[in-house]
Design brief:
The structure holds 2 protein chains of 2 kinds. By secondary structure, chain A is mainly β. Chain A has no helices and 11 strands. Chain A starts with a strand and ends with a strand. In chain B, strand 7 and strand 8 form a beta hairpin. Classes of the chains: A mainly beta, B mainly beta. At the A-B interface, strand 4 and strand 5 of A face strand 4, strand 5 and strand 10 of B.
């Protein structure tokens, strides 16, 4: 199993450009998440999904959109990139079963710089 | 007040030392707790879950104190390979919608 993969690994954008980050998981997990991580701060949740076709806002959703058309994929879009969106973006997934709380499995991250 | 607080460190310890990290959380209704490890420029990975009765995994021991709302991680006989950032993670619901990550504690183990 590849686990959680993210595409691309690195990207440099100019202010105002748009892009889509792709997250894919092959573990048949129901839940998927997008986080951003900035120096000195914990991971902050951007958006999450509890299943195919459903998405919800997290702590810092402004400037981002998401879609989960297939269970295994979770896309994060930046419509008009801003320098404040320079960050490392992590995708994660998590299974659900019998009410037990499992850990999240993370992708390797996407390093995005907006100039 | 941050929802999950950790001492950012860094903790600089020699090989073989014992080191302990604490983490406090603000929501008394929090339901599950974890320690993750994050190496430089890598993704976080689960180190261990934290159970109410405390639990041990080799050189690592985790404790939970619900009354005082803190969790701890003890590392015995530190190895060079233990150098990393340790993230305290709190779930405020079994759905995992409200997962709060601490900013992490950096550990450097030196020969």
């Amino acid at each position: 199993n590849a686990g959680v993969t993210q595409t691309p690994k690195f990207r440099v954008l100019k202010t105002g450009q748009s892009m889509t980050l792709l997250c894919a998981q092959d573990m048949n997990h129901e839940y998927m998440y997008w986080y951003r991580q900035d120096p000195g701060m914990g991971l902050r949740l951007i958006h999450y999904s509890v299943g195919e076709g459903t998405t919800a806002k997290g702590e810092v959703p402004d400037g981002y959109n998401v879609s989960r058309l297939k269970k295994q994929n979770f896309l994060l879009g930046l419509e008009s990139a801003a320098p404040s969106q320079t960050s490392v973006y992590f995708c994660a997934s998590k299974p659900i079963a019998g009410g037990k709380d499992y850990e999240q499995y993370f992708g390797p991250g996407t390093r995005l710089t907006v100039t | 007040r941050k929802e999950v607080e950790q001492d950012p460190g860094p903790f600089n310890v020699p090989e073989g030392a014992t080191v302990a990290f604490n983490c406090t959380y603000s929501n008394s209704a929090s339901q599950s707790f974890f320690w993750y490890r994050q190496d430089c420029r890598k993704e976080p990975k689960l180190l261990m879950s934290v159970y109410s009765s405390g639990n041990e995994d080799g050189r690592f021991t985790a404790q939970l104190n619900r009354a005082s709302q803190y969790i701890s991680l003890l590392i015995r006989d530190s190895k060079l390979s233990d150098s990393a950032t340790y993230l305290c993670v709190v779930n405020e619901g079994t759905g995992g919608f409200k997962t709060i990550f601490g900013a992490g504690t950096r550990l450097f183990v030196k020969a």
